[in-house]
Amino acid sequence: MMKKSSLLFFYCYIGFFSLVFADGAKPIIPMPNDEASILLLMKSSLVDPLNKLQNWKIASETRSVHCNWTGVWCNNGGFVEKLDLSNMNLSGIVSDHIQGLSSLAVLNLCNNGFETALPKIICQSHFIEDH
């Protein structure tokens, strides 16, 4: 018969690995499709009177469909590196969701009609280059 401490260790061991390898576990590394969702969330808080972002929609199961969207540049892994929304007559709110674009290095929002301050995360981000 097993000792109580051995049995307790066994159950803790099984419980730990059940949690680690559970089917519902979320991946630690974001997938490019997650970035498409982030961009769509950002778009929902913008006013686009000239319909410049009309191709910002998921039309297929293509892995990096968002890399072909207006103003979006991606790296070879399908992650957004540059977001150039300049001169599009956009207004509204630049959403905090932008912080989910972990590879973003260049952000250009010049010559738009944003009346609110940018999210603090943009100013604090170490990954945004000064151009």
TrEMBL record:
Keywords from the named record: Leucine-rich repeat, Repeat, Signal
Signal peptide extent: 1-22
Residue stretches making up the Leucine-rich repeat-containing N-terminal plant-type domain: 33-75
A Pfam family annotated for this UniProt entry: LRR_1
InterPro entries documented for this protein: Leu-rich_rpt (IPR001611), LRR_dom_sf (IPR032675), LRR_N_plant-typ (IPR013210), PRK1-6/SRF4-like (IPR046959)
The protein's name: Leucine-rich repeat-containing N-terminal plant-type domain-containing protein
